[in-house]
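Example record

One chain of 313 residues, shown exactly as stored in the release files.
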Amino acid sequence: MLETLLPLVGLILASVAVMSNDAVQTLGTFIASNKKTPWWKLWGATSSVLVATVLYSWFAYGGDISFGRLDKIPPVPIEWYHALAPGVLLLLTRYGIPVSTTFLVLSAFASTVVFEKMLLKSMVGYAISAVVAYGFWMLLSKYLDEKKKVKEEHAKAWRIAQWCTTGFLWFTWLSHDLANIAVFAPRQMPWEMMLGTLSLLIASLAYVFYNRGGRIQQIVIEKSSTSYVRSATIIDGVYAFILLYLKQMNNIPMSTTWVFVGLLCGREIAIATMRDKKIKKAFPLVARDFIKMMFGLAISVALVLLAQGVSAS
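Predicted structure tokens for this chain:
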């Protein structure tokens, strides 16, 4: 009975947790800059990309919806501590803590060696995104004031660009983070399970848009100009290309949360530097996000030790 129940519970919890916590990284600026658009329109557009992405991976990878990102993590019988991980993530999401879903969920499955590789790749991703964002926005600030209102004749073009950029980012992000859900399912997922998982993801996404991102959305809206369509488009574009680069690096799973927080960190420091030559104002926001990441990492390490301890006993 438990052999059937635990994978199902883990799959459900992981699906809801990934959409509630990690999806806001990708869709947060989209939500913030489309306050006047009915939530169901935003949900419909992103759901169509979600369906296309899952179906593409399922057909292209022989029933695997993770884009082959679980190659280094062999399937194991699901135990109670595996299902505990996404449950903890859901709890942290309610308090607006942007922890890494990859670390929290996959750490219970990965060996110590793979976990170290995941951590290293995530640290590299954080550094790359922070440096790229800092340099990019230092250059951009010389030619563009993001707080300046978009001209009326350009507004429609920027809106179209944002929706297209968000779709590209959403696809790129899903190709990373679907592994956090697929780890609870067979590597060759039956079509009935695939459709059930897809339906659950779509329903969870509806909840995210209905609540306008929830408390975790605070990490986005507290940053400079993220509610402006032009800024949101630029942020999403840079984030998408960084994720695409890291995806091509290797198939080791990594924390997209760390990449996103690194991006916002570099951008915020660059904007603060260009505006008043003082970066002290940006440090509290950057430090708070970093502390939250470390908190999530500490919990992930605890889960690794728990999993190893239980399996050894």
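Notes: DSSP finds twelve helices and no strands in the chain.
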